[in-house]
Amino acid sequence: MLTLECLGNVKSPVHLPDYNPLDIKAGIVHFGVGNFFRAHEAFYIDKILKTEPDWGIIGVGLTKGDHSSKKAALFHAQDCLYSLTECAPTGERSVRIIAALRDYLLAPQNPQKVLEHLSNPDIRIVSMTITEGGYNINETTGMFDLSNPDVQSDLQNPENPQTVFGYVVEGLRRRRAAGTKAFTIMSCDNLRHNGDVARKAFLGFAQARDPELADWIARNATFPNAMVDRITPTVTADIAKALNTASGLEDDLPVVAEDFHQWVLEDNFANGRPDLAKAGVQFVTDVTDYEHVKIRMLNASHIMLSFPAILLGYAHVDQAVKDAALKQNVENFLTRDVIPTLKAPPSVSLQHYMQSVLSRFSNPAMADQTLRIASDGCAKIQVFWTQTVRDLLLGHKDCSRIAFGMAAYLEMLRGINAQGQTYTTSEPAYTAEQEALVHSDDYAAGLKLPAFDAWRDLESSALDQKVIELRKIIRTQGVLAALATLPT
């Protein structure tokens, strides 16, 4: 087990903290201590604690159950230490011990302790990784969902909250009553304009609880937008054993991540912030262009690669990107269809970014599953491809490559690859009627699916015909035959 007491026995090349963890004070409360947080925000904070020791992190878990209790017990047993193994596509690895997390609280076990921390003037930032769907926004209305049973419980019992919204708003109420400054509410979840989404969610809850309190929060707290990026796979028991064997550590909480990491953060803080620029964070006034680059290049090419890769029987992304035909198609898609209509942020080379994306995809240590990347393809197509499709249609440009991606998606949904093996896709958005369109023998039927709704207002008959043509080729001759028909 990895503890403060055994740090002196850790051998090179494992990197130890360059500060004394016992000297660190907490300045941040973080909700959702998952692998991404531990490899991203905590990793960045760890880099600045030597010179800014007042920015340690108190981690908070919100869920009940045996798994959550075991996780909390492990953090306490290890003095909240853990190892992070960073893996490059070349196979090179480095291991460091992270000590930025200075306590871990399981909220259902000790809710008042969590509220004490949120009320403490030393806490100046409350951050979160609660997943993209964790903000409780109603997809139909676009507003905070007050009908959620847990939200209703928090509104009726505000001093004994269950949700992150209840905890944060009660913490801010106590600060207001005590004359303490509000804190910054900082989303680190992978969604566009995450700060704006967080603002809508927390103010939506606060307004339902107390309009005057909501007004005070709106005037005094801030919600910076951020673009976050780092591939951080799940660590199974076998992976954990392999990581410990390689590092020589006995760590019950190891994390593994790619060597790439990026954090672009709107400089909008209510009560001070650490100098994270020293750790590589990019502070900007607007993250929008950075979000567009990530969505339209990295995320868009991820599914452009994975849909046909599944049909070819590739289980992992690194296998798929080593297929010359698939890789060339992604390069052509980015170079000819995406980059010409994409605004590059200051000092960002889109060609260099493309090469970085392809290099990251090739990293075998990530073992990212193509089926995972392709999951919920309906939503991903709408988010990742829409602007490119619209630009191509409005500019009367060649749509062959995006048509291939659409055709591969529709064929992938049928659940059988070129080797005759079956697999299960994850499309929670599709109804029984839409599933019938997926499995119809009519090649045009799938084009009625909602994945393609975002450009129905445009003339797209040529695009539709190309999708039908490529579906026929994929079905009868295979993915590679269809790729061979695309312009080079």
Automatic annotation (TrEMBL):
<dbReference type="InterPro" id="IPR036291">
    <property type="entry name" value="NAD(P)-bd_dom_sf"/>
</dbReference>
<dbReference type="Pfam" id="PF08125">
    <property type="entry name" value="Mannitol_dh_C"/>
</dbReference>
<dbReference type="Pfam" id="PF01232">
    <property type="entry name" value="Mannitol_dh"/>
</dbReference>
<dbReference type="InterPro" id="IPR050988">
    <property type="entry name" value="Mannitol_DH/Oxidoreductase"/>
</dbReference>
<protein>
    <submittedName>
        <fullName>Polyol:NADP oxidoreductase</fullName>
    </submittedName>
</protein>
<feature type="domain" description="Mannitol dehydrogenase C-terminal">
    <location>
        <begin position="286"/>
        <end position="445"/>
    </location>
</feature>
<dbReference type="InterPro" id="IPR013131">
    <property type="entry name" value="Mannitol_DH_N"/>
</dbReference>
<dbReference type="InterPro" id="IPR000669">
    <property type="entry name" value="Mannitol_DH"/>
</dbReference>
<dbReference type="GO" id="GO:0016616">
    <property type="term" value="F:oxidoreductase activity, acting on the CH-OH group of donors, NAD or NADP as acceptor"/>
</dbReference>
<feature type="domain" description="Mannitol dehydrogenase N-terminal">
    <location>
        <begin position="27"/>
        <end position="277"/>
    </location>
</feature>
<keyword id="KW-0560">Oxidoreductase</keyword>
<dbReference type="InterPro" id="IPR013328">
    <property type="entry name" value="6PGD_dom2"/>
</dbReference>
<dbReference type="InterPro" id="IPR008927">
    <property type="entry name" value="6-PGluconate_DH-like_C_sf"/>
</dbReference>
<dbReference type="InterPro" id="IPR013118">
    <property type="entry name" value="Mannitol_DH_C"/>
</dbReference>
